[in-house]
Amino acid sequence: MRMCRTLMAGLTVVASMVIVGCQSTAMTSAKVYIQQNNWAQAREQLLLAVAATPQDTEAQMLLGVAEATAGNLAEAAAAFDAAEADSARFEEASKWRRKFWVETFNLGLGALNDGAYDEAADHFVKATVIDPQGAMAYRNLGIIHERQERPDEAIAAYETAVSLDPEDASTALQLGYVHYQQARWTQAVEWIAPLAGAAQDAGYYRVLASAYDHLDQPDDALLALKSAIELQPEDAELLGDVAGIYLRRDDYSTASGYLEKAFALSPEDNLLGYNYAISLMRIKDEPRALEVLEAVVANDDQFADGWALLSQLYLRADRIMEGQAAYDLAESLRDQ
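The structure assignment produced for this chain is given below.
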């Protein structure tokens, strides 16, 4: 009985030696094929090696290279995962994974720059397979979906990118902008508000102000617009938007200050001039309002509302004939 147990133990040892021997032979053959740049044959041997000893992280890493070379990206990613689980092998395996990710990502960039969106998307998806942690591939997928007017898919891709790289402010801001385009005002504010200051881009403040306006938060909208003006103090449209908030509050004195500067910057903008004249009338500066309106209609003699308001000012100034003529012209233009 003792002899039988001893014999069985011996057989176990022999079997183990045979398995190790096969693995060693497979790895040796694989490395020979790799030196010959014959990755197809190397892959076959590496599959044998990994099947025999899955804990061999060198075999796993080389199998990852072979699978990626063959275009089997999911299999390559799994093999790299196994290799990177070994701290001693992590750096080398990660470099190989990065190599294939970069190659695939760059193919996507080239196609994107050529406007071949479907081809670019295919490459970026492959990049996410080889490395699911590569945030930039998801960002570029978001760009493609956005350009192809697939906002929900763009949002999903951007959200993944931001979850992988929370420091990527530009993607988070773009995510907020896509929400804004879809009239999702609350989500737009949630993404843009914390980052607009760091972006130092007046455009994001404009979007933020508009979202606040839709949410009926005029105080926040006003703060966002003023932040935009700090970045672009000579932007007549921004100045006019701020004035519009003050006009709605019946704060005509403050509104007229912003409109004065805006109209000076953009004297061809009839609406700015018209609102400026109204604010001046409300603060009892009708002589200046008349001057502004005369400049407005001189710039555009088809502006019916400008002529109508000007007729009122002429009449108040006892310029009866001019007032009647301005009124008649306004009515004529409106009838056209």
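Interim note for the steering committee: The chain has 19 helices and no strands. Residues 1-23 have pLDDT under 50 and may be disordered.
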